[in-house]
């Protein structure tokens, strides 16, 4: 009976330690997987920032084309009606249009910069969350390995106690 009790105590400790080691491996893999997900999301956010910059350039180009057409139509309308463009209201209107166009271009650029900043900030946050997920997995793995060692030590102590009881 004594050898069976000692063997059962040892086996129990080994099984518990094995389970803890499997748990450690799973925790580590989960942390690594979650980090990959966050890194992927960060990459997408960085790509968004690039796309926002490209869209800004296209929006400004389109706006400039529309503005040039507006200024041309306005100038032609004044000239057709016989208005002199050298001074007065026609020049004020054309100058005001140009000022508004400059303001609109700056607004487009500003909004794009905000969008890029938000996308880059999102990427940074995703990377930080990925690092946290990885560290969490590593910490859980360490705790599980510690539990494995504890199980082995506890099993060794119990086995020694049983051996000592029967043979000591």
Textual characterization of the structure:
Helix content is 94%, strand content 0%. It has helices at 2-80, 89-167. Helix 1 runs antiparallel to helix 2. The longest helix has 79 residues, at 2-80.
Labels describing this entry:
2 helices; 168 residues
Average of per-residue pLDDT values: 92
Q: What's the main sheet like?
A: none
DSSP summary, beta strand count: 0
Number of helices: 2
Question: What class would the helix/strand composition place it in?
Answer: mainly alpha
Task: Specify Rg, calculated over alpha carbons.
Answer: 36 Å
The percentage helix is: over 70%
Q: Multimeric state of these chains?
A: single chain
Would you identify the regions where 5 or more consecutive residues have pLDDT less than 50? none
Distance between the termini: 15 Å
Element order: H for helix, E for strand: HH
Shape: rod-shaped
Overall number of domains: 1
- Strand % is under 5%
């Amino acid at each position: 009976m004594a050898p069976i009790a000692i063997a059962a105590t040892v086996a129990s400790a080994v099984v518990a330690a094995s389970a803890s080691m499997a748990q450690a491996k799973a925790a580590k893999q989960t942390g690594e997987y979650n980090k990959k997900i966050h890194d992927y999301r960060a990459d997408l956010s960085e790509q968004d920032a690039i796309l926002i910059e490209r869209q800004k350039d296209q929006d400004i180009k389109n706006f400039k084309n529309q503005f040039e057409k507006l200024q041309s139509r306005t100038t032609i309308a004044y000239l057709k009606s016989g208005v002199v463009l050298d001074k007065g209201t026609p020049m004020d209107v054309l100058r005001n249009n140009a000022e508004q166009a400059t303001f609109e271009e700056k607004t487009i650029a500003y909004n794009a910069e905000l969008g890029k900043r938000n996308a880059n900030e999102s990427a940074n946050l995703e990377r930080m969350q990925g690092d946290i997920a990885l560290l969490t997995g590593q910490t859980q793995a360490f705790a599980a390995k510690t539990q494995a060692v504890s199980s082995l030590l506890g099993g060794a102590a119990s086995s020694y106690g049983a051996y000592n009881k029967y043979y000591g």
